[in-house]
Structures are given as C-alpha cells and as structure tokens.
Amino acid sequence: MKSVGEVMAIGRTFKEALQKAIRSTEVKRFGLGLDRYDKWLNALRNPAPRRDAGTAQPAPAESAVRTPGGEGDDPADRTLQGESPDAEWPISQPKLRRKLAVPCQGRLYYIRYAMKMGWSIDAIYELTKIDRWFLAQLRQLVDFEDEILSVADAARGAVGNAPPPAADMERLKRVLRQAKQWGYSDVQLATAWEISWQQVRHLRTLMGITPVYKLVDTCAAEFEAATPYYYSTYETPYLTAHCAGDEATGAACAADSAAWRCEDEIRVTDRPKVVIIGGGPNRIGQGIEFDYCCVQAAFAMRDMGIESVMINSNPETVSTDYDTSDLLFFEPLTLEDILNICEKLNGRPFAEGGGLLRGVIVQFGGQTPLNLARGLQQAGVPIIGTSVESIDAAGDREQFRQLLERLGLRQPANGIARNAAEARRVAARIGYPVLVRPSFVLGGRAMEIVSDEDQLQHYMRYALEAAYTGAETAADSPILIDKFLDHATEVDVDCVADFAPVARPDRQEHNGDDGGRAVICGVMEHIEEAGIHSGDSACALPPYSLPAHIVAELKRQTRMLARALRVRGLMNVQYAIKDGEIYVLEVNPRASRTVPFVSKATGAPWARIAAKVMAGMSLDALGVGELPDPRHTAVKEVVFPFNRFPGVDVVLGPEMRSTGEVMGIDASFPVAYAKAQIAAGMALPVEGTVFISVRRADKQAVIPAARALADMG
Fold it and tell me: 93: how many CB neighbours lie within 10 A of its CB?
C-alpha cells in the first residue's frame, strides 16, 4: 500500500458517484473529462498535424516549454499526475498500452482516451482487467460527451444575447439535466461550452435544474434516524397529484414550472447554523490534524446551541462520523457543491439577509477550504472568524512586508517573481542560498532551498507542477523567494485572539484598547534547524533551550501580529532565531497542524475555544487566559513513509514528507524526546560503534555530539 488518503462519493448511479469521487480527490480534475487537462478536447479545439499514434513522438523543443508567466505551456500548470493542458493527440500506442497495463493514479483518464481512439471494451479489459461492467459505464459517459458538445452553440446563445429557438432550448435543458444526473460538474460543462461555470450555474438555476439531497438512513429504517447524513443528486421532476384530472388540467400543470417537484429528503430546521468545511482527503501536508480542529468546532457549536453542519468527502475521519455534527454532507469540496449546500440551508438568497446560515468556518480544514473562501464570500456566503482579507494579507508578500515594516518586525530579505527572469533578478539581489516556494500552498509543496542560478532555473521549469490547484494563474500565485537563514533555530507559536475582523487590515492602524486580545497557546522550539519543514521537524513545548527573554519577545510579536491582522480565532506564526535576532518567516491566521499537539500538551481545547470565539463569544466571556508553562515537557516527533518507497531520497528539506506524528511526555526533555523516538518506531541503540560522517561546513558543530558519544563509551 502506498496511498495516504481516500475519498467517498455517493450518487444515484455509478456514473454520478464516480465523477463526484474524481473531483473529490482534489487532483485538479473536475470529472472524467471535459476539463482544461483533457488532451482530446484540447486537440479538438486546436488541431495540429496528425500524429502517428503507432509510434512514440519526439519531445518538444526546449523553446516550446513555458515557464510561469512566459510564452508557451506553463510547467507549473499540471495535475497531480503530471498531466499538462496540452493537445497531445492521438496518444501514441506504446504510451497508451503502458498507461492501461500498469496501475497508476491517472489510468482512468487514459481508459477514456483509449475509448476516444476507438478501442473496444474487450481490448481495454485485456490490459486493465477492470470488470467489463465498469468499462461499459465509462463508455456511456464517453459517448454522452458528443451530446454535450452538440448543444454548445445553444448554451452560448442562452447565456448571451442570442437565445436559441425553443426546440434547441428544450434539447439543451434535456442534455443539461442528463449531464448533472451523470455527475458532470459545472466546470466541465463550462469548459465544453466555452462559457464560465457561473454562467452554467445561472443557466441551470433558471431551468430549474438544482440538486436535491437524499438521506442515508443510519437506523436501517427500523425507526426514524436521529443522525442521518446526506448526499446531493439531480432527479427527473414529476407532476404533483393536484395535476391529475382531465387533459386540459394536466396540460396547464405541465406548462407551470411550479407544479413540477423533485423529492428532497433534507431536514432543515429553523435553528441558526454554522457550516464547517473539512479538509478532504488526507495527504502529505494536510491530514488528520485539521480534522481534529473541525471536530472540535462541531462540538463548540453544539455547546453554544448552534446547529453544526459538516461538509467533507473523507470517510476515514471523525468529522464524517454521523453523530459528530448535527448535519453531515458527503460532498466534494468544490465551490459548486459547497454553494449548493449553503443556499439550501440558508432558506433564502443571501442577498436578502436574515437567512438561517450564520456563517461558514474555512480556517480549520487546511488549504482546501481556504482556497474556497474568496469564491464563497463573493457569492454572499458569510465567512465567520478572521476575515478573508486578513488571510490574504498574511499570504500576500507585498501586503505582509508592509505590515511587518509598520510593526517594526524583521523578516528575511525577500521578493516575488512571476516568471523565471524575475526569479533570477530577485535571487541575485538578496543573495544565494534562497528559499523558493509558490504562494497559497500547504505542506511546503514545491518548496526548495536553491543554491545557485542553475538550480533556480531548474526549479522554475520543473518543480512547480504539483503546486497549484488548477484554478490559479502565475499572476494569482506568484513565486515567493526568501533569503535562507542557515544555522537558525525555528520556532512555532500558536495563539487564539478575539479581535473584531475588518475589511482591510493592511490599511488601518489598531492601537490602544479596542476590546480584543490575543492569548498565547504555546511556544514550540524545533529540534531540527530552520530549512526542515515544520511538519517534518520534531519540536518541544515548552522550549528546551531558548532564553526567557527570547520567549517573551516571541509572545509579544505574536500578539502584535494578531492585533494588526484582526485575527478572530487561531493563528500560527513561524519564526527563525539567528544570532539572537528574531525573524518572522510566516504568519497563518488559521488553524495549524500544531493545534492538536499544543492542546494535548497544555490540557486546553484551543480549537474548541477558537471556534466559540469565531461564532461570537469573547475570550473574557469564556474565561480564557494565558496558561503557565506545563511542569512536564512534551515532544512531537514525526513518522515517515520511506519504507514504502524504496530508493526515495530520505534527506529532509522544506517540502513536507511525513505522514504522521507521535508525542512523548516526561518531566525532563531528554526522556520525553526518547519516548517520542520510541513511539515513532525508532530503535534507540544502547551499545555498539558510532559512524559519524558530515559535510565540511558541519564539522565544528558535530564535535560536542561526538565528544558526548565518546564519553558514553
């Protein structure tokens, strides 16, 4: 086994459930095909000289390869399987046979390509050994794509200034309803029809094509279920009973759109509601630690008498236990699916105000819900807690630099780049080595320490392909370049604050007593030096070697940042300490992966407290104050999957690789650290010979450790 996570999707048919599952995996695909990474569709729209499908094709010239923001294909614009939005068609026979014969994450899309190229179900079965029933279902989806494309002109006319004839509109409505019943997303239809997904959404709403929600009975129909969960589907509407009668009455009812109904099983109460968006599938950089926060948020809403609504697609988590929240939806975490649920629960359009939905929590589920925050806000959905603007201000390099200058805080020399040429100029200005990474990603994805210009050029060309979700452009998500602080100590600080959110934290001064405050949850000193991703580094709480005045200054700077960003909820700050100077590396006004560790180390449910603050309570009302350092020491250690991937590079760096963690607690730091190592599966030797090999630059630093080992015999 090599996977680290999974999703679950529910639909009325296999076809619908499959397409929902594909977009739930968050690999930049919105269904089986008809998206921007569909080679067949791209070739259909940009025909090139026909290739010989029987032979492999030569690699494109280097000049044809794009760099971010440059001409040609952008190598950063790829799916998590490495597929780019190119027009490679037809697929060469050797490549296609290899993709079908070898099980891999992207094989499903190549089965579709094989069908597009005329392969029979039997031929595909011989290579894949996938049951013919499933292949037949895929064939129906592939064949239906021709119908979707055949109504493209009608769709463009319907959303434009040239409405098509009534017969074409009726056919468009039939195809659109069938597409939604078979799981096609608005993004797929928008790509096929060359319009925006918002236009598709508006069109199907006008046509009355909206989802209904079906109940999964957790009591097997023996008695009424108190804890059911829901999934969306699209049904064929039926006429209500009062339309029965003579022919004239039936015809009149059929013409009245209000007479048509679809069975909706959702139970919507009149209680105020808060939606919690989960983290989706577990993956490196975003896993169970965020689910812990979402579960605590659900418990907090229950304590406050607010109906908690959980939306997630991950069946492995506590958040998707049917009795964790008041309402549970197993749905893909896409803007389309989340908006559908929010509109259903609010009971009225958001523009009218006074709905049942008090707000949505996007700060607890990791990067996935954060990527949805701006779109939800633009649709009128209320976001509670720290504002979207504050989250963006912390992630936008220029806004963040201005904020730190205003507060008088240090940060490493840095710059931003949108293409390779800009990256070279920035790196030359601040000096190598530099730390480069995309903006708005989690888990240090595609983050790398770069030592010279050749390595930087390689990074800009190849290392970004897995960094983006598929919706961004180089302008939306520039490359961040920082001076790398070698031999520095890294520190994480978590806090909870209850400041009133504002629309533009970067344009306002907030001095004096404005009714809010920040409470430090914990200060964690990393054991590995700066340069190792915080998710891969062991850490200790309280700090095991930092002087008291440094810890006090870290807390002071954290409170300043929370006030300036108007944080309402959790915030994590990462610092580097070099030669007694404190540098701010990153500020995340959201739940971090350290929250469960800090909560268990200090004995305080910080995520639950933060959720109550986000829902309107104050820290004073909750009686929350800063806790003294615990009398024990807690050490977090991480677990790596290297034994599952023979030959992989085990040298750690700024991109996260761990898949789990453990905690060791003891009255002393050494024993707590030893417990953590044992819990992580590390066998600690008590005798034998020690072999030490270090690079020349580390020889002085290793002498104390070597001497200690020698003294132990």
Answer: 15
Claim to verify: residue 551 and residue 660 sit in the same structural domain: yes
pLDDT at 175 > cutoff 80: yes
Token pair recorded at residue 122? 């039997």
Q: Could you tell me where the beta strands, DSSP code E, fall in 560-622?
A: 568-578, 581-588
Tens of pLDDT, residue by residue over 343-363, are 999 988 888 888 899 999 999
Residue 539 located in a structural domain: yes
Average pLDDT over residues 539-551: 95
Query: Which pair of tokens denotes residue 565?
Result: 């960003």
Of 478 and 586, more confident: 586
- In the chain, the number of structural domains is 3
Domain assignment of residue 253, yes or no: no
User: What confidence tens digit (pLDDT) does each residue in 202-226 have?
Assistant: 999 999 999 999 999 888 778 887 7
Give the CATH number for residue 320: 3.40.50.20
Q: How far is CA 356 from CA 35, 278, 325, 387, 443, in A?
A: 35, 20, 17, 20, 35
Contacts of 556 (CB under 8 A, 6+ apart): none
| DSSP string computed for 100-164 | HHS--TTHHHHHHHHHHTT--HHHHHHHH---HHHHHHHHHHHHHHHHHHHTHHHHHHHHTTSPP
Residue 244 within a domain: no
The 10s digit of each residue's pLDDT in 252-289 is: 565 555 666 788 888 889 999 999 999 888 887 777 88
Give yes or no: residues 504 and 629 share one domain.
yes
b/e 648-661 (16+ beta carbons within 10 angstroms → b): eeeebbbbbbbbeb
Q: Report the candidate in 281, 658, 656, 653 with the shortest Cα–Cα distance to residue 441.
A: 656
Dihedral (Cα; 633, 409, 391, 532), 10-degree rounding: -50
Query: Measured between alpha carbons, how far is 640 from 662 in angstroms, rounded to an integer?
Result: 11
- Residue 582 φ/ψ, nearest 5 degrees: -100, 130
Q: How much is the pTM?
A: 0.86
Kindly state the tokens that stand for 314: 């991950």
Q: Is 133 found in the same domain as 55?
A: yes
The domain that holds 159 is classified in CATH as: 1.10.1030.10
In the three-class reduction of DSSP (H, G, I as helix; E, B as strand; rest coil), residue 614 is classed as: helix
Give the DSSP letter string of 228-266. Answer: -EEEEE----EE-GGG-SSHHHHHHHHH-GGGEE-----
